[in-house]
Write a structure and sequence with these properties.
9-stranded antiparallel beta sheet, alpha+beta, single chain
């Protein structure tokens, strides 16, 4: 699949894109974060401050924290000084373990090279977790009518 096949997803209308993955547990989150951290420049933040990647118990604690807890974010493919084409995919741990939710700015995918980075990121994510990832229009919860495409662990991209 090419970016042109999903051009509507990357036309910016003022909203972000969501990535959703279901069937996640703490070990899957841990595998996903470590796999992404090995493949891309990444950052883990708690309350906006850099922190070391959590262990299994830390992931479970963050995922079950209260509303007053600081936001835990995992940024994959973050821009680094001098880097080009970073996607800036942000995973949010405080929203619970399942589903895994992330955001992506549509303007971070302006061409085929950026789409190839997104595809690589999703391939690594699905290999680490064994779960499909849905590319959707922004929403507070998963809605099947908002799905642009799914990246499947066993077959790659499929248009919804």
């Amino acid at each position: 699949m090419k970016r042109a096949d999903l051009a509507d997803a990357f036309d910016w209308d003022g909203s972000l894109l969501n990535l959703w993955s279901f069937g996640m547990d703490a070990p899957a989150w841990l595998r996903a974060m470590h796999a992404q951290d090995r493949a891309f420049p990444c950052a883990f933040l708690i309350g906006g401050e850099p922190a070391p990647l959590p262990d299994l118990a830390g992931i479970e604690l963050l995922a079950t924290g209260g509303e007053d807890d600081p936001i835990a974010e995992f940024h994959a493919d973050t821009p680094c000084p001098g880097s080009q084409g970073a996607l800036q995919v942000v995973f949010f741990l405080n929203f619970g373990l399942d589903p895994m939710e992330a955001t992506l700015h549509p303007l971070d995918v302006p061409d085929e090279a950026a789409f190839a980075r997104l595809t690589r990121l999703l391939k690594i994510l699905t290999e680490a977790t064994g779960q499909d990832v849905f590319l959707c229009a922004e929403s507070g919860e998963f809605e099947s009518r908002l799905v642009y495409a799914v990246y499947r662990f066993d077959s790659g991209w499929a248009v919804a």
